[in-house]
Amino acid sequence: MTLDQQKELLKLYKQYQATSKDTIKANIRTHMDNEDLKPAIISEWTGIPVQTIYQLRKHNNAYKPDFITTMALCDLLKVSITEVIKPIQGLSIPESNTKWDMKAKQGFVHDYNKLGIEEICRKYNITQRTATEYNKNFAREI
Predict the structure, then answer these.
(1) CA–CA separation, 27 vs 81, rounded Å?
(2) Where are the domains of the chain?
């Protein structure tokens, strides 16, 4: 590794550390969903424990994958680390210690009924499967 490559790696590491866990996890989830790979397959091909893969898929936990884990996933998914640390426009995932209150649930259901599924997924930074589950559960509660 050249000194310039080493400096670039350190720069990327610092950017990664400064990026929110929600952004990193959402971007990784998006790329995993696009490849339609099962957690067991991802684990087998990368050597990352399957429990770690499941932690990445959860929206409401404090887990932030370490830099090397993310690099291994990027390699498998054929995506640059810069794509994973790229801010997401309109990211509105509640912080991990925040619960969905009734007003937020009503807003989600309202959005779900007015917007297309892709817009919902972008707005709340969730997968289509999660959006469908949220809508079903929230509609039942309100």
Answers:
(1) 10
(2) 3-84, 102-141
The span from the CA of 17 to the CA of 33, in Å, is 24
Which tokens in the block code for residue 58?
Answer: 């959860």
Kindly tell me the burial class for residue 129, based on how many C-beta atoms sit within 10 Å of its own C-beta (0-12, 13-18, 19 or more). Answer: exposed
Residue with tokens 């067991």: 40
Between CA 38 and CA 111 the distance in angstroms is 29
Q: What is the CATH code for 3-84?
A: 1.10.260
For the whole prediction, is pTM greater than 0.70? no
Query: If you ran DSSP here, which 8-state letter would residue 104 be given?
Result: H
Tell me the per-residue pLDDT of 81-103, one tens digit each, with 9 for 90 and over: 999 998 876 555 444 444 688 88
Tokens 């884990």 belong to: 69
